Amino acid sequence: MIVQLYSRSAGTGLPVVLLHAFPLSSAMWLAQREGLAPMCRVITPDLRGFGGSRLGEEEPSVDLMADDVARLLDGEGVDRAVIGGLSMGGYVTMAFCRRHPDRLLGVILADTKAGPDPQPVRDKRESIAQAVLSGGSGVLVTDVLPALIGPTTKERRAMVHGRVKGLVQSAPPGAVAWAQRAMAGRPDSFETLAGLKVPLLVVVGEEDELTTPADAEAMARAVPEGKVEIIPKAGHLSAVEQPEAFNTAVSEFLRSELAGAARSRG
User: Are 154 and 177 in contact (CB under 8 A)?
Assistant: First the structure.
């Protein structure tokens, strides 16, 4: 079954696609749609099963999620775009790089990692999948939410914490289970990154313990001219916890790296 992704967009010009984290939706990109719209066309889809997008009946796969994004670009009349994602969105971005390299203008990987899950993490994903299918999304608040945001946000940004908790609680159980299994089955993506022919920006929260600054550095080293930007006082959801710093990093990347790439192609 073909799934048409629901998306929110803002701005005009250079198309920049931002793919959300698990178990959130495109709602997490509000500050990016507002902050980046003056310089580019920000496209933020709900990945299948989340927000306004249907889940479908296919087997869980990040490759399938990447193909959904390519189909969205077709519908938007976009041939090539900057593709970026945070956490799960980063896994989908790397799958997009593998499957649709000719559609890339640039890549942004935020709070994610290129390596596959070790067996204990895959087992944990499956246990969460089974728990949400049998008992609802409450397990996400106890088992997933605490690691999504950094200690600074927990201590000083109660409204951000509350907003993220609300998004987590609204995640549909079917989509949660499907996405966990899709992420558990994803392959190693270091070879994909090594083959990139476009600029790469890697962003990571200084306090991210799920996908650490060391993971970010490893991804950047895999690419000839990969750049790392560490966001101070942010955890795993750096774009939500420190949106101004995140937007600044993305804006500078779009201005400098992509302008340089365009000149070299010309």
Answer: no
Residue 216 Cα to chain centre, angstroms: 14
Q: Are 215 and 117 in contact (CB under 8 A)?
A: no
> What's the pLDDT tens digit per position in 189-215?
999 999 999 999 999 999 999 999 999
Domain boundaries, the chain: 7-116+186-265
pTM of the shown model: 0.96
Q: Which residues contact residue 59 at a Cβ distance below 8 angstroms, ignoring those fewer than 6 apart?
A: none
- Here the contacts of 214-220 (C-beta below 8 Å, separation 24 or greater) are 215/112, 215/113, 215/114, 215/115, 216/109, 216/111, 216/113, 218/113, 218/114, 218/115, 218/190, 219/109, 219/112, 219/113, 219/114, 219/190, 219/193
Residue 2: what pLDDT? Answer: 84
Q: For residues 175 and 191, what is the distance between their CA atoms, to the nearest angstrom?
A: 29
CB count in 10 Å sphere of residue 34: 14
User: Is the separation of the CB atoms in 167 and 25 below 8 Å?
Assistant: yes
Give 143-174 pLDDT, tens digit per residue.
Answer: 999 999 999 999 999 999 999 999 999 999 99
Tokens read off for 258? 């992509």
Strands 7-10 and 41-45: antiparallel
Pairing verdict, β 200-205 and 227-231: parallel
Closest CA to 223 of 59, 82, 86, 97: 97
Enumerate residues 6+ apart whose C-beta is below 8 A from 77.
Answer: none
Reported CATH class of domain 7-116+186-265: alpha beta
